[in-house]
Specification:
about 350 residues, alpha/beta, two-stranded parallel sheet, 12 helices, 13 strands, about 40% helix, globular
């Protein structure tokens, strides 16, 4: 009928979205929301066939990108007919800070990977680039409030890499949006999962006394969807930054204690640095101990965004997701017959 035809016509005009990593916490939440809203979505995964199946299950087309090769990313963006690109890879260094001791392994992904995304998006005719960054890179502001006009810290290699990644987006030729996210937690977060399973097995974590910003992955995805839905305009700003954090600030020790209590394992073991066999990594210590209070006022005012929860509500949503997934996983999913049924967009 005419009404159905009109609906289909609207849906076909929605821009295609390419997500660089659709199987981390932010990427999966975003892929689910965009597909539900009718957007064509192609999303990368670094989890092999398991990640591809997960993306297929929510209606996205999975790909295996080489994140530091602009030529590979360009090919994938062109095949996806992407008009909007969302770069979520910085989550690799912006999950629960207790599990970021491997930050050095992801420096190239953060800086060179983002630079490759910017280059590929420019060549592929992408109209908008949304980049998820990290409020941790404000560094140690001694507990003072910071907003989007404050410069990121260059006090260590990680903060500098995050800064350079942002600069690539903001200095690029296409409209770029940087969302500086608090520490991200969510059901698909590797860091969140590692902490959870560690607590189940009685393992502790390192202490962290810096007051921080935090954000549930679904709340962050809400902000991204708002930008995806924004109409394209010839006078669209070229470089815009928003802090995306919950309304409350707390230390890593406080967050992790509340997680343990919500899990029912009680107060987790939180260890200091005094009896370490080797000198602690100063960047890892900074992630846990630097203190800054990023304001989310601009995002609330300009995007009409607000976080879904405070951290206690976010933790409860996280645990509910894991419990539901655990129940569902008892049923074996049907196996796909051939790789081409999983990867409609091969990374070549």
């Amino acid at each position: 009928n005419s009404e159905q035809t009109a609906i289909e016509s609207v849906e076909t005009t929605l821009p295609a979205v390419f997500i660089t990593n659709g199987t981390n916490a932010t990427g999966m939440a975003l892929a689910q929301m965009l597909v539900a809203a009718g957007y064509p979505v192609a999303a990368g995964t670094d989890l092999g066939s398991e990640g591809a199946y997960a993306l297929r299950a929510v209606g996205a087309v999975p790909v295996y990108p080489d994140m530091t090769r602009a030529s590979n990313l360009f090919s994938l963006m062109v095949m996806a007919k992407a008009e909007i690109v969302v770069n979520t890879v910085v989550e690799a260094v912006n999950g629960l800070p207790q599990k970021l001791d491997n930050w050095r392994d992801n420096l190239d992904l953060v800086e060179k990977g983002t630079q490759a995304v910017v280059e590929a998006a420019g060549k592929a005719g992408v109209k908008r680039l949304i980049h998820v960054s990290a409020t941790s890179a404000y560094g140690d502001q001694h507990g003072h409030e910071v907003d989007e006009t404050d410069h990121l810290s260059g006090s260590n290699d990680l903060y500098e890499a995050i800064h350079q990644a942002e600069a690539a987006v903001l200095d690029g030729a296409i409209p770029g949006y940087v969302l500086r996210a608090g520490f991200i937690y969510g059901a698909q977060s590797a860091a969140s999962s590692d902490v959870y399973h560690g607590f189940e097995n009685g393992k502790g974590v390192k202490t962290g006394s810096g007051v921080k910003g935090w954000v549930f992955a679904g709340s962050l995805a809400d902000a991204i969807v708002t930008l995806v839905k924004r109409e394209f305009s010839v006078d669209e700003p070229k470089a815009t930054v928003y802090n995306i954090v919950e309304d409350e600030y707390l230390t890593p020790d406080a967050f992790i204690t509340d997680l343990g209590e919500a899990m029912g394992v009680g107060t987790p073991s939180i260890g200091g640095w005094t009896f370490s066999l080797r000198a602690p990594d100063p960047v890892y210590v900074a992630l846990l101990s630097d203190s800054a209070l990023p304001s989310n006022a601009k995002a609330k005012e300009e995007l009409g965004w607000s976080p879904r929860f405070g951290h206690l509500g976010g933790i409860e949503a996280l645990l509910l997701s894991w419990r539901a997934a655990s129940s569902y996983s008892e049923e074996e999913p049907a196996q796909l017959e051939a790789p081409e049924e999983v990867l409609a967009l091969p990374a070549s």
